[in-house]
Amino acid sequence: MDLDGAESKSLFAQVQFYILQTENLRGDNARELARLLKENGAEEISKISITDPIPLQDITHTISTTTDFPEYEAINDALKSVVKPDWVTASIAKGRLANPRQYSPDPRLFFSGLVVCCVDLPSGDSDAIIGGVLAMGGLHSSPVSKMVTHIVALTMDSDKCRTAIEKNVKCKYVLPHWFDDCLRLGKRIDEAPYCLPDPEILRKRPGDRIPEAGRHDMLGASSPRPDHLPTPSSSPSANRRQLTVFKGKKVMLSQDLELGSHLLGTIEDLILNGGGMVTGSIHKADIFICYYRESLDYRIASRAGKDVGNLAWLYHLITHNAWTSPLRRLLHYPVARQGLPGFSRFRISLSNYNGEARVYLENLAKAAGGEFTKTMKEDNTHLITAHMVSEKCDAAKEWNIHMVNHLWLEESYAKWQIQTVSDPRYNHFPLRTNLGEVVGQTPVDRQAVERVFFPHGSDIDPSVDGDDVPRPLSAKPPTATSSRNMTGVNAHPSRSVVSLDVPFRAHQPDAPTPKASKESRRHTEGNTVRTPAPSRFIGKGKENETPSTAGSRSAKEKAVAKLHDLAPDIALFQKETKRVGGVIHGGRKSSEDMVTEVNKKRSASQDEDSDTGADDETRATKRVKKSKGLAPPSMRLALSGYKRWVGTNRKTEGEERARLREIGILVVPDFASCTHLASPHILRTQKFICALAHAPIVLSTDFVDDCLSQNRRVEPDDYLLQDTEGETRMGIKLSDSLARAKNNKGQLLRGYLIYCTESIHGGFETYKSIVEVNGGKCLLYRARAGSTAALRAGLDEEHDGSKAGTPDYVYLLSGATPEEAKLWPRFRQMIEGTGKSPLVVSHVWMLDLALSQKHQWRDIYALTDKDVRAPA
């Protein structure tokens, strides 16, 4: 008996598959793939008609090169697999079902397809890299095998690297820095600058030119209002455009598109000739095309789960004759007429982006409501740059303009909330990478858009069908007379209302489009941004363990159980990615124990200058050994108000930080991990006040200057900060404040719920960090319609349980501008309804409390109507 043959034919015995026809998977390729599967025991499931949905209940695996098809989320919810065609050949080569996670086309799993082998790395670094790769869809292999795609090493001198070369393993040899940069950005960047034996990031200087990076797939997605109708790529003839993407679909075109009669007729002809229909009823439509996110039709269609896109998305469907989600690209979705709240005060300029990527970011900034400027001046607020090498970047540093990468703009627009520019993801610029290569990969956050623009249960019922005119629930059904009157003077004269399900030339509104109502906006407690979470995670066990494909309830329960088991590991990985230094300095070795990337780069340049006789590989090896020889720091020092590295002296910062590190002093960027704080005098800066809550030893900045001038660590006790004038001016005694901070242990504001206005002096994020570092909870207060219930829920959560020890007051930090004063009555009304007492206070109250580290009250802290400043 041929046991091997029987085993081969039963390899896919439990697999019922459906092949999704895409541009890269159709015709002979699809037929060959189906043959391989069926020869090994799989069963193919087909659709009866091209317009039918994928039969989810009958399949276990969907073979696709993309996740951009309508049923993808439903397949995920059913815990069934979507895999790339490579999964089939890999399973056959292994003789067992390959892990579907490694072959997922989900762009969020940006390490999908990677098999990583770590060589001669510290165990902590190796564990962190492996954890990141597994979480983002890749696999790990301890031995060097033919399946390995990336070997992670510091040099090519290891035995495993030599073995891989001898075995002719087709893989890439990369520095661990590549994984760190990818995980920091949440995107997969090109690994070429990190490849051994001669990595570009170690060979090039920081000021060397970085090549341009273009995105060809941005064509047709760079503007929400395209200026011409494209020609379908599937048809060489412009006279007879045959489309299938609209087959069986009913399309409704909104009047806010402002299309001319000729263009409108051309678009309708394309839809009709492609087997689709044009309708004027939003309840009968499958696709709704509009420009703004404000009409009643938009909200009805969105709540009903219909495809809602703009004209650019419609043109994209026509051009490629393939369905794509309008949420996949930010400018394929309708825009907001007023823009993102608060974004209008931003003046934005671009640097180092080119081609369609630059046009896309310009239009995205305008769609968000900001002002875009081609040239940059001192009054610009933000510079969005792909890397740090340009004249604009140098000017931005000098003028203190925020420098961020494009992810800040994309995610602010996608989440419909301004993201904090201090998030490390937005300030990270890999040394030899042009971030233009990952432009346009951020999709629309549907939950955020739903929360703001079409929350459920407010004014319309999407289930109503049969009425051609959408109306509020409270409205009476229209009479025959009123229906005729509501048809409008521009309606097609030859068609009645009841015949709207047949093709007609143009949709005209049955009633004037109502103005967008103020939708309730659920309050969010912060701007935390996380690396995109994968939809599913592999369980513990064998490296290539195959999940059950039976589709039964038992299989689902097992999958959920595995997800629960893996939850602690997922949480640990997410915690690792937030730490300063990233994953390549993780595990047992703290990120603060390493010199920053800039210092290593500059010291590497000095080594090259002093060792011109050695080759590049030898110099790289020496640099690695040199960085490993540093002893753990004896002092972690945070700086506040330090002027030495400002302006022209900034060029010496990296070299002097490295010198301090060599004598045991590590300059840390955050206050949470510092043991010492250096400042010229007592300051009311965010860093000084937040660091004070941790009770560090506070020194004068003369300590840093003397350490550098003497090239040794001087005695810190001789440099304790003495600022009698500052103590008198601020009404505190620094030594007493530090003693109280030590006793408070960061819990001075425990149990306190403090709200803050959006336009407060210094910014909401500043006071949020001060409140939270002292154990309190700080929320942004906008007093928008519908937000009272959410705010009350947050208040009830904060004070749930015993009221012993909790304050009787709920505070609102506010300025005295007329705009902020308008919020006070609603805040007081909201808090009084919860049994607490509202108190509107100046920001000075919070600063004095945090500096003194004790609760104190003065009447000047309270704000009343008398304190409101007249507008300038």
UniProtKB/TrEMBL annotation:
UniProt-annotated stretches for the region Disordered: 205-241, 456-492, 505-560, 583-630
Xref: Pfam families: PTCB-BRCT (PF12738), RTT107_BRCT_5 (PF16770)
Alphabetical list of PROSITE patterns matching this protein: BRCT
Gene Ontology terms: cellular component: Cul8-RING ubiquitin ligase complex; nucleus
Compositional bias annotation for Polar residues: 231-241, 479-488
Biased composition (Basic and acidic residues): 205-218, 516-525
GO biological process: DNA double-strand break attachment to nuclear envelope; double-strand break repair
Compositionally biased tracts (Acidic residues): 606-615
Gene3D superfamilies registered for this protein in UniProt: BRCT domain
Domain BRCT: 7-105, 106-196, 343-415
Protein name: BRCT domain-containing protein
Species the sequence originates in: Imshaugia aleurites
